Amino acid sequence: MTREFNKKREPLFHIVRRTGMPWWEALLIRLGGILLGFIVICILFQATTVEKNPFAIIGQIFNGCFGTSRRTWLLFRDTALLLLVSLALVPSFKMKFWNLGGNGQILMGALVSVMFMYYLGKAGVPNWAIILIEIPCSILAGAIWAAIPAIFKAFFNTNESLFTLMMNYIAEGLVAVFLNSAVANGSGTMDVLSTGTLVNIGNPYLLTILIAIVIFALVTVYLRFTKHGYELEVVGESPNTARYIGINNKKVIIRTIILSGAICGVVGLLLGAGINYSIAANSHDGLGFTAIMAAWLAHLNPGAMVGTSFLISFLDNGVAQAQTAYGVTNDSVSQIALGFVYFAILAAEFFVTYRVVFSDALHLKKKKAVVEAKGDEK
User: Fold this and answer.
1) pLDDT (tens digit, 9 = 90+) per residue, 156-182?
2) pLDDT by residue (tens digit) across 289-316?
3) What is the three-class DSSP state of 358?
4) How do 354-358 and 13-17 pair as beta strands?
5) Cβ contacts of residue 108 below 8 Å, gap of 6+?
6) Burial letters for 364-374: b for 16+ Cβ neighbours within 10 Å, e otherwise?
7) From CA 149, how far away is CA 144, in angstroms rounded?
8) Tally of helices (H runs) and strands (E runs) in the chain
């Protein structure tokens, strides 16, 4: 009998995919995750600062995003940058090409723009001419940097995750080589450049926002209403089916990843020639990795990525302001706080997609104990 019950032993619960959850219930679960994240932020700041009022802490977070017009514009600009990188990753992810090289592709776009700004500026080339040269070249640099792992994937079936990740480190190395050559004092820190800078439209933030709106519209149309968008989804779902219906898989892979790299090149151009006017090895600011979370939280839906990009930017800027306001010098506090918030949001997303179903394992365990007890009595 004991062996029989051992064979029938089951786990206490199962994870089952949800079907037909009402939209309002999914919304409540997600809002609950965000609320839990804010609670954790308040607890951490209460433990590390003299502020004990949780509403004051939350007020500082909102102040960091909407306290002044500059902070509000900065929030929307950061949202636009994150949205752009998320849009760049969506075509490749839909094709199940796991592009982890967003940081490197952004850096290459920024590097090319800053190199033209530096060298052509020293040569006395007019500002408008530098801009005309750096725009296509920066976009092309991002596209080429993405095309390299795409070609190897298409023809040799290499692991794209490792390849694109490796390309990030190579890009950082190339930036370091340029800085060693361009910075005479050997500090590795480049001064702000004044030549070849992109034109401001109204203020320093609006150009990035407008470009994000245009690319958002183009990518949405591309994915939903074009043959290319259909083909990349078919290749992602079943390469054999795509091949059977006449789709050239290699061509689709390379074409799609070039598009992703080109959009990252646009982000690099904006960072190098429109925001920082300089470059460093960390100029990408981790956007390539953060955008992965924004894209997956939105289920690769460009419209939903507007919301996820805004939420992540809001949390980053708000927590940074709270840290400054309360004099927290240890950056790990804000990083831990953000980590807990992201974990809570991801956990909420998990429970939107799956549900926990408890089995009768506990009942079987009790029944087994009764049978064994009766056997001992005999």
Assistant:
1) 999 999 999 999 999 999 999 999 988
2) 999 999 999 999 999 999 999 999 999 9
3) strand
4) antiparallel
5) 141, 142, 144, 145, 171, 174, 265, 268
6) eeeebeeeeee
7) 9
8) 15, 2
